[in-house]
Amino acid sequence: MELSAKSNGNEWGERAAQGKQHMLAFLFAALDKAPLNASSCRDGVLKAENAEAAVQNRATMRSTSGVEIALAVLLAPKDARMSLRAFVASGDLCGDLLFNAADVQPGDEAAYRLTMETAKQTLLTLTFEPSYKPTFKDAFAYAGVENMKHQYTGAAAAYRAALAMVNQSDDPLKFRRVVTDELSMALGISGDLKGSREVNEAAIAKDPEYPLYYYNLSCADAEAGDPKAARTHLQLAFDRRSHTLKGETFPDPTEDNSLQKLRKDDAFWSLAQQVSQQLKSEKKP
Predict the structure, then answer these.
(1) What residue numbers bound the domain in which 255 lies?
(2) β-bridge pairing 21-29 and 93-101
(3) Which of 124, 146, 173 is the last residue of a domain?
């Protein structure tokens, strides 16, 4: 249903549902609490949340793969709804999974028992690999979630990590272009125009035919109030538009928030309008 990620790279979250059964899961680094085990992770999180008074029962279990899981059944004081919290941990990593049922009325014991049983059956399938090393796909996914949540500084850091591992991807050229473009935009939106420019200039030195590197430089020029450089880079980008990736379209400069800042510069805006008109004519069957 939903993914989340912290900008410091220390937390990943997932919200999922199956029918009325809901799960909210977080994997996070608790650097100041290490070394952790499942029980200390559980007790530390509940204490930090001031949720200890809501705990009805504590227990432990193991998944089929042998992972130790610390459990806590909680009763929400406001609406008397019950939930099951499950925790796994190792070193400085702590996993927190919350299970509850939607639309269950307080006191509906049958529904709560079903929720608890479903949760425990799910937990039996749990695996935990604290020594796992993130791959390109992991870093790219993490960056994408941060980008979607408008956490651009954190997204830029994750895109840099993905770019460093891009040769692991199944199409290094394609993903180097995609990640560089996303990294450049994340840096630009977060205010690091110098960093955005450096990323694109470095990419052009290795891959001079990809148009969006030049387009991003034009946007950086516009943000810096340099219409002459913006015009030069927009023209260089447009001249290479045939090298966009499959399924990718060349941006309309007249609809770009950064480039619109140069509307009052006649020479630049004239070029932007010409590019826009040409792009529209090329779309016609």
Answers:
(1) 136-283
(2) antiparallel
(3) 124
pTM tops 0.70:
yes
Q: Does residue 106 lie in a domain region? A: yes
Contacts of 143 (CB under 8 A, 6+ apart): 155, 158, 159, 161, 162, 179, 182, 186
Contact (Cβ atoms closer than 8 angstroms) between residue 146 and residue 155: yes
DSSP string, 121-189: HHHHT----TTPPP-HHHHHHHHHHHHHTT-HHHHHHHHHHHHHTGGGSS-HHHHHHHHHHHHHHHHHH
pLDDT in tens, 91-137: 999 999 999 876 666 667 777 777 788 889 999 999 999 999 999 99
Residue 103 exposed, middle or buried by CB count within 10 Å (0-12, 13-18, 19+): exposed
Counting Cβ atoms within 10 Å, is residue 68 exposed (0-12), middle (13-18) or buried (19+)?
middle
Tokens of residue 46, six digits: 């509940």
For residue 45, tell me if it sits in a domain.
yes
